[in-house]
Amino acid sequence: MTRVLHILDHSLPLHSGYTFRTRAILRAQQADGLEVRAVTGQRHSADGPEVETIEDMTFHRTPGAASGPAGLREWREVNALAEAVVATARVWRPDVLHAHSPALCGLAGLKAARTLGVPLVYEIRAFWEDAAVGNGATHEGSLRYRITRALENRAVAGADSVMTICRGLREDLIARGVRPDKIGVMPNGVDLGLFGTPLPRDAALAGELALGDGPVIGFIGSFYDYEGLDDLIAAMPQLIAEQPGARLLLVGGGPMEQALRVQAEASPAAFAIHFAGRVPHHEVERYYSLCSVMAYPRKRSRLTDLVTPLKPLEAMAQGRIVAASDVGGHRELIRDGVTGALFPADDPPACARALAALLSQAEAWPRIRAAARAHVAEHHDWARNVRRYRDVYEGLLAPAADAGARTAAR
Question: Residues in domain Glycosyltransferase subfamily 4-like N-terminal (predicted)?
Fold first, then answer.
């Protein structure tokens, strides 16, 4: 049985899109007959033992915390994580190392793979230099941006195989000179076993939030600038003019929360905009039950054009109608008029028109829901897609197996 040791920035019990994708991968690989474990780096901030079992998955932690000036601190992180991977591998004996972005994990995986003499798969979920721009931590072309990009390129060059979560990232790597046959795609996905019959509308929660009986436009997630929630708020007066009973429900929090609240309070549609704050993960389905349409108005940028988000897929799997801006990451997931609606990015009036059109065509919702769920089942179900990993691993392990067989035959 093939053993795979995953190398991660952080993991459960922390909750993030990163940890949920990891959980889905590990669970699907276990169901596919692989043995899996994971090692997290020093940025995993949850307290816990050095070896932790969560939901039947085993995580090894890298002890300590890196210190020092920028650059030296990150290199110490890489070395500490590489040492933790090697220590775990010497006991558990994995056949393959599978590192997941950021590049620090890829570089740690590369050091460990060379020490252990096992192949390395490096998986890119986003280019972290672009994510830092999207989060407002730096700007494109800065020294930090260029260093992060160079480290990414180094990890990609050293890995035996590279996986990306979407075509946009793959095409960008090819443009950098990476061989196309070295790069596979493992799309963002969902565990359809987690999504049964959607909950009926939670009338008590709707009353508590004063949403009324009209349609609700929802967003559940992190409030980053690139999510475009300011455009969604700016679209509300026009939407209310066409659909007076419509309401906007924003669930979550993040760097833009205060600015968004100020914007909403100054809006002519302030009465129709509701902030629910952050909610416990086990309560999220109740909030989804209130939403007629889930809106994802991402702004256009390198990050949003190259990377496919997870939230629209989860909404489609739960039978929710999805409306999203037409950035590249959304176009990979949604067919306009078939599995959801797309509208021009960075354009609040266009967003309002698309939402109003969806709300006026409720008779089409069953068809859209069915098409969206079928699309997710065919293209984004982890139980099906996880077999792509097995093909990659077997391709990397085959030369070593053939060499062993030839040696044994002598």
Answer: 17-189
